[in-house]
Amino acid sequence: MVTTTNPLENRPAALLEAIARPRPTDAASRRAWALAATVTDPELPVLTIEDLGVLRSASVVDGHVTVTLTPTYSGCPAMHAMQADVAAVLRAAGYASVVVRLVLSPAWSTDWMSAAGAAKLREYGIAPPAGHAAARPSGPAGPLRVSLSVKCPRCSSLNTSELTRFGSTSCKSLWQCRDCLEPFDYFKVL
Amino acid sequence: MSVASADVAEYATWLGDDSLILAQRLGELISRAPELEEDVALGNIALDLLGHARSLLQYAGTATAQNEDDLAYWRTEPDFRSAHLMEQPNGDFAHVIARQLVSAHYLYELYARLQASADLTLAAIAAKAVKEVNYHRDHAAQWTLRLALGTDESRRRMVAALSDVWPYVDELFRDEPFIDRLDGIAARPSTLRTAFDAAIEPVLAEADLAVPRGFTAAGGGRRGVHSEHLAFVLAEMQVLTRAHPGAKW
User: How far are the Cα atoms of B16, B64, B69 from residue B8, in angstroms, in the given order?
Assistant: First the structure.
């Protein structure tokens, strides 16, 4: 089930950030959020769905839990696993009525990945997104050819090159370090 | 999710079918691409397109209480609304790239415009898709340059592929009468052509490729009139579901 709210393109980054992480305010909902936030991405087991910015909201009303997630990429096959994992964690914690919804809008961006998430990725051997999605041209500005240097997660060298734009999952591309010669995954800016 | 009107459902079916059929064509290349990296790239592009198709067909299905699988697996050719470009056979790698170059540039302009649709579901799908299609556009442009400016053989193939694919461009920008009823909701196809040309022409110029001239394919996909190719695509895509109705993993 896909539901939508207003598209929020062209809003200031600070507002987008606030919208992206609408933490619940009441204690019951905060507990549900904390439980959902323990679920990790099956493809990136070091990242929780909270680190990734995929966990959008959690609320508890009369014992019924509603959690909303947003997909990273439209065709991400890990989405259903995350949805099922969140439901399982909440049911195991005693909630009988759990709904996990997917929302598309506002569209997920790598800008929503937390700083802690980026650090965990680097430690895991995956280069986190270099730069921000907001800095990328929007509209019909032609194919993107220039991007920021990607730092090797092993030796921190900036002397790296892209081997292939599409990597092991939708969200990653494959790079190689010219100094330590190791190939590594890079989490693309989206 | 809101329920689509009959006209909005028809429009969402156009867009969903384009992405579904193109994804199916690209899926045929998995383990058949010229190198492993391209297997992965084309597979990932197909996955993005399949994601768009699922969202769009799910929305289209709300008008008739059908789900995305009903629409993908249980319709026959005349009910599909995909443009002829999407059902074109893969051919050699240059043909795949030429089809990607055209389709990704078209889809980029489409979704860039559709983000502002008064229909919030279409706007949300478009806002998500436009960012992904931007990567597809870049991938196709880079390969177009590499093939066109590579060896004599790669250039010969890229020139031939572009001239084979180009007759199918016009259909993408043709309006059908019902579009008049979707003012502010649909991205009127004819109004996307200028932006498409402005984006694709510099890529062709850099690759030293002339915009092909010649015949224009008749098209008709938006009215359910397809070439002989679509039936084979559907047969492969639908055979398992039809052989085992209701089967689950």
Answer: 12, 12, 19
